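Hey,

The postdoc asked me to send both predictions to you directly instead of through the lab channel. I've kept everything plain text so nothing gets mangled by the mail client. Protein one:
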Amino acid sequence: MRIPFFCVAIMTGAVALAAPQQSSAPVAPQEPSYADLADFALASKITAHVRIRSAQPLRGEFASGTAAGFQRLLVTADLLALMKAPEGQQPQVKYIIDLPFDSRGKLPKLRKVESLVFAQPARVGEWQLIAPNAAITWTLARETTLRAILAEAARPDSPPQVRGIASAFHSAGSLPGEGETQIFLDTADNRPASLTVQRRAGQTPIWFVSLGEVVDEGVSQPPANSLLWYRLACFLPDQMPESVTQGQNADDSRQVAEDYQLVRTALGSCARTMSAAR
C-alpha cells in the first residue's frame, strides 16, 4: 500500500510547502476502524503520541493550495511516546496540517490536545504526515490497538501483505458434494499463503488459512481485527477473478468461485471510516 505524502519539510527561516492533495481535520469525524489504524501504522515510519504545544497559521505562499474553509497550520508538539520510529527522534517536533473552520468560522483550540501522528521523518525535529488526515485525537483504546498492530507486524511470522489471488483449483471428492478448493495468494514478498475450503457430505464446509509451504489447518477463520484478518479482508478481491480459473472446466470454476465467496462472507467487510487512510 502506498499513501501519497501530504506535506512538507520545514527549513531554517522558511517553510517549503507542497500543496496537499486534499484537506482533512486532524480529528477523525468517526471512530477510526481497525483497518484505518492499520493502514496508517503500517504505511508510516513514525507512529507517535504527541501533545500539541502551539499551532501557527501559515499565510501567503506558505498556504498556497489550501482548500476553501481550511487553515494551514504549523504545529509544534511535544513527543509523549513513540510506538514506531527510526532512532534519533527529538523531544519536540513540527509538522504541517490543514484544519477546517467550524460553523462560526473559528478553529478549534489545539493547545494541549493529544494526538496520534503518522508520519515520515523529514529533517531533524520535522515530520511529514503521510496523508492529510494522518493525525487523529489520542485515546487509550486507539493507542492500545495501534500497539497491538505494530507488535504483530514486527514478528518474524507476521502475515504477509496480500496483493491478490495467484491461482485456484478444485478437486472433487469421491462422493457427491465432497471436494476441496485450494486458493493460492499473491504476496508482496512471495511468502506462501493459501486458503483451503473442504466439503464433506452432510457436513458444514470448513475453511482455513495456511502460511507455509505445507498446506495444513494452520489458522481457521482468523478473528476480526487481527493482522491476518486485515491482510485478507482488506486486500482480497470481492469475487474470484474469472482469469484465475480460465482453462478449467465449468463445474470446477463454479465451485472455486462458490468456495471463495464462502471465505469472503466469513471474513466480512473491511470497514474504513477515513477515506484518505487507504
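Protein two:
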Amino acid sequence: MRLYEYPNSVCCQKVNLALAETNLEWEPVTVNLGKNEHYSSDYLKLNPKAVVPTLTHDGSTIIESTLICEYLDEISKEKKLTPDTPLGRTKMRGWSKAVDEGLHDGVADISFSAMFRERMKRMPEDRRQQRFENIGDPKRYDRGKTTFDSGVASPFVKYAVYAFEATFKNIEIELSDGKDWLVEGKYSLADLGLTPYLARLEYLNLLEVWLSSKKYTQSWWERIKTRPSFKKAISDPLTKDEIGEMVASGSKIRDQITLIRDGLPVRNL
C-alpha cells in the first residue's frame, strides 16, 4: 500500500489519521506541491485531478480523501471508524459532506489569503502565471485568482467563514447533550474528517474566532488532540518553520476574519 501525499495538506492529514487509527501498514511517497510534482506526467496517470492524496493498493488506485478513509476502514480488521447502524453511517456521511462541500474549499481559501498568497507575491511573474495556468479546473482557477487579487476581501473567503460558522453551530448543537463524539457516542470518520480543518485553523491562530463561545465544541476538540493519531498524523510531521509561518500569517488576518464572521465589511490587505 502506498500513499502519495504532501505532509501539510489537510486531505493527506485526514488519510494519515485513518491509517494511524486503523493500524495499517503503508509506504509514504512525497509529492512536492511546491515543485509542481502533482502535475508531472507520471503522477497525472495516477490522479488526473492533480491533487493529493492518492492511494494505491493491490493494483488499484483510489483518489479523494473521504473515499480513501472509508476504504481503509473497510479493509482494516477492526472496522472501528464507521458507525454500526445504517442511520449512524448516514449521519457520519452527512458530516463528511459538510467537509467536502464547504470546509475543504473554505480552509484552502483562508489558508491562501493568509499564507500562500504572500508566497505567490514573492514569485517571479512567469512562475506565478504558470501556477495559475496549471490549475486546470476553472472553479479552482477563479477561486485562486480572485483570492490572490483581493485577499481576505475575496467573496470566497467570506463563503469560507460562513461555512465554518454553520458547521461549528451544528457541532455545538450535536454535542450539547453531553456525548463525547458526533455520531452514536463513538469516535468515527465524522470526527476524524473534521480534525485537519480545525487543526489548520488552530495553527493559523484563527480557531478561537469561532470556538471562544462554544464550550462543548472546545471540549470535543481537546479530546481529539489527545488521541495518539493526532500527534502521529498532524502535529509531529510539521516543522517549527511551518508552524511559525502559519501562526504569523493567520494572525495578520485574524481581525479581518472576525469582522467577516460578524457580517462587517473588510478591506484588502
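Summary for protein two, as requested: Strands lie at 2-5, 27-30, 54-57, 60-63.

Thanks,
C.
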